[in-house]
Amino acid sequence: MPELPEVEVTRRQVVPLLVGRRIAAVHTTRPSYFFVTPPATLKRRLTGRVTTAVARHGKYLLAALDDGARVLLHLGMTGQLYGSGVSSVRLLSSTAGATLSPEEQESAPGPDRHTHLRLAFDDGGRDLLFRDTRKFGKVAWLAPGASDPRLDKLGPDALGVDGALLWTASRRRTAPVKTLLLDQGVLAGVGNIYADEALFGAHVRPTRSARRLTRAECDLVAVEIRRVLLRSIETGGSSISDYVRPDGSDGGYQDERQAYARTGERCLRCAEGVIARRVIGGRSSHYCPRCQH
DNA sequence: AGACTAACCTGAAAGC
DNA sequence: TGCTTTCAGGTTAGTC
User: Fold this and answer.
1) Given this structure, which CATH class describes domain A158-287?
2) What pLDDT, in 10s, does the model give residues A272-293?
3) Residue A140 CA distance to nucleotide B8 C1' (Å)
């Protein structure tokens, strides 16, 4: 679920649930490496606080608190952040402003053994739930004025990427261009789906050594990264491998995919190539051998 | 520094 | 049917 577009969609959904509301209680699971800040500390620091804003950088969310501290959140591979009573699947696949039917509200995954953080508020309204099956997600409390090494080493947000950045970063790299795009220290926010989609859009094969890119190709890849990410945000992000809703209407970026997880299918652009799959840097990669060079 | 691998976890799906 | 293997949208620590 979580690359830049999904995190941004989540951010927008979470803002009204969090901003301006006073935290009355904090419920957690037992200590695990999900908690960069131990649960007990988290409870002490968050109880009584009001969130003033929720920002995003790459795949990280940053909630600013009224005492100057911040909370850093990462969804990892399976993290979901949503309000109690509303299905997160519905949230991620719906377009902004869509209303929820009673059945959909009832389908909300309530707190369970994978709900590692739950915030209750003093207005008695909906709780904020953070579920994460695989626990690759992270939550950290940052003292006022303090940063975090995870944040410090991120490159610029991928929505602001330009050809010059990719050109500079690619010059000394012999590794595949796909690996470059996934390096959060170069640009923050692109993950496996959107790396494949952007490279497809730019006609660049993901296996190509980064340093073999021309300047013009860097410009094109940058344009495609921005286009693909913005379009995905517009459509509510991707929910591949999530179930299809009973009523059939799902929307979402997974329907606009050209390459990712289309192994063996006909290329939608040239209509002759067949989408190939290869492992690059430990991640499965998808491309058209005929029109990506 | 850059490039690879393994590891962190859980669950669904495919393979036998 | 049931057991085993493979795979998954991410990041980090360790090695060469």
Assistant:
1) mainly alpha
2) 999 999 999 999 999 999 999 9
3) 17
